[in-house]
Amino acid sequence: MAWYYVIPLLVVGAVAILFLVRNLKGGLLLSGANTGINEHVQAAKSALEQRGFSLVMEWPGSFMDGALSMRRDGEVTLHFALGRRAIHQDSVDMKLLGRGDRRLLSMWWLQLAVELPDAERFPTFAMCRRHQGTDAAWGFLKPKKKWSLAQHTTGDARFDELFEILVEPDLRDREVIDEASRTLLLSLSQEPYFDNLIFLCPPHAPRWLIVVNPPLPSEGTGSVEVIEGLAERLRTVAKTPA
């Protein structure tokens, strides 16, 4: 066989081998990613079941596709969403913006929300951890400008250094986040995602407190209880005359 026939065959063979190796390697990496996210999903599911949550939907999958949605009914309803598929099911953009905007969904990975009964409302409120991890979402939402909120401080220097707080103008000089709530929130300071925390009570959905990127619930992480405590505090503020 002439060399001008052999060389193309060798090149094609080499390309085919490289293609197979690359895909095998990619498959192994993807398998590892799937295992990782599915382990987190199952751990969160187990921790939430221990706290009385029930399963809404579960999507095993890769790092970007694996998701979990759970709910706990009671005097107030708690909603948990892990992964963008679960976030999308919950239409978080409609709650925060009053309209659909898929750009917002790309910023969301994990949320825990508290829903009040029909007759109640939270004060319009926004609070975020002062950190580069919150800059993109906070800048996109612009709650101070778009929700007409006023800057608020607690008088607790350590807490005010960590969090930016915005409230309805009438609440600017009231104690919105009391000492007990501050202590609860700071109890999460050593947990992953603490630096990415954002708390939002949107004017478009006043029965909702939506917490973005809370520490993932686990047997040793009480993020559910912390968020319940803050929700109860904001609920009390809304009920108390100025």
Notes on the structure:
This protein has 242 residues and is an alpha+beta fold. It has one domain (3-239). It has nine helices and nine strands. It has helices at residues 3-50, 84-90, 92-97, 102-105, 132-141, 143-146, 157-162, 179-186, 223-239, and strands spanning 54-59, 67-72, 77-82, 110-115, 125-129, 150-152, 163-167, 198-201, 208-212. A nine-stranded antiparallel beta sheet has the order 1-2-3-4-9-8-5-7-6, sandwiched between helices. The longest helix has 48 residues, at 3-50. The radius of gyration is 23 Å and the shape is globular.
Supply the key terms.
242 residues, alpha+beta, nine-stranded antiparallel β-sheet, 9 helices, 9 strands
Mean pLDDT: 84
Instruction: Indicate the radius of gyration in whole angstroms.
Output: 23 Å
Largest sheet: 9 strands, antiparallel
Q: Please give the count of helices.
A: 9
As for the number of domains, it is: 1
Strands of the widest sheet, in order across it, are 1-2-3-4-9-8-5-7-6
Find the structural class using helix and strand composition: alpha+beta
Low-confidence stretches: 8-34
Percent helix range: 40-55%
Q: Please indicate the percent range of residues in DSSP E strands (runs of 2 or more).
A: 15-25%
Characterize this entry briefly.
This protein has 242 residues and is an alpha+beta fold.
Describe the SSE topology.
Elements: H1 3-50, E1 54-59, E2 67-72, E3 77-82, H2 84-90, H3 92-97, H4 102-105, E4 110-115, E5 125-129, H5 132-141, H6 143-146, E6 150-152, H7 157-162, E7 163-167, H8 179-186, E8 198-201, E9 208-212, H9 223-239
Antiparallel strand pairs: 1-2, 2-3, 3-4, 4-9, 5-7, 5-8, 6-7, 8-9
